[in-house]
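Record format v2
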Amino acid sequence: MRLIRYTQPYGRTFYAPLARSPWAGLEAEVGRLFEAALSETASSAAEVRFPIDLYEDAHTTTVRAELPGVDRSAISVELVEGTLQIGARRVQKIGEREETVELKRSINVQEHVVQTDKISATYDNGVLTVTLPKREEAKPRKVTVAIA
Amino acid sequence: MSLITSLIPSLAERPAQAQPQPRSEERGPTVAPRYEITETAEAFALVVQLPGVAKDGLELSVDHEEVRLVGRRAWRKPEALTVLHRETSDAAFELVLSHDRAIDVEKVSAELRDGVLRVALAKAASLKPRKITVG
């Protein structure tokens, strides 16, 4: 085997702008995008999602969320600008230290359909049930048309 | 057989092998719940997340070999409701943990609150740290 001296490709030594990769700007942009995307997931990891179910009948829309082991006072249900926000805080004791986990989910709600002042919620066996009654005008109406 | 059981005492205490275990097929598909086990010098603590399971839907059995747990969900969807979106399952929870005689079957306490089951499983005497005084 013979050892040969490594020579830089692209004649870097002759022309300075070529020393910089032609894709450097794009690479920086891609790096920035990745960083932004990753930091977003990192922040959402602190807010744990929990499974929810949506049901509907003629009069109500029902949201059921599995939130085991959460204190009732640590659950918040808010309707803000057409979004139903369910938040909960679970305090876990791991040995001596306590760990707080924030749980959050939001659901889009059509405010013209829901009687916003009559929303109710219950918490049983670790399941939160939010009942959203529909407005009268949003309920399906049955009109019998007489056929002459 | 009596010779074998006298040689291996653990066989005598074992429930008869012929005894059929309740098959999971009978209660439909089951899912494994999320659980956590922590250990202290005296006991094991088992914490199982069983959202939607009420006290009467929970079966917990502890024998010399296994801790067996079945939790059925208390809520069934009324006929009138239509599903818009689902992320949860209706399947019952089932968890089987084998422990190889590590726990004292007589000293098991359990508490189910807000969909979280906490079971305290005292360690069998043979597993507890023993202090031997040297005379």
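The interface with chain B takes residues 51-58, 61-62, 64, 66-71, 95, 123-127 of chain A (CB under 8 Å).
The mean pLDDT of chain A is 80.
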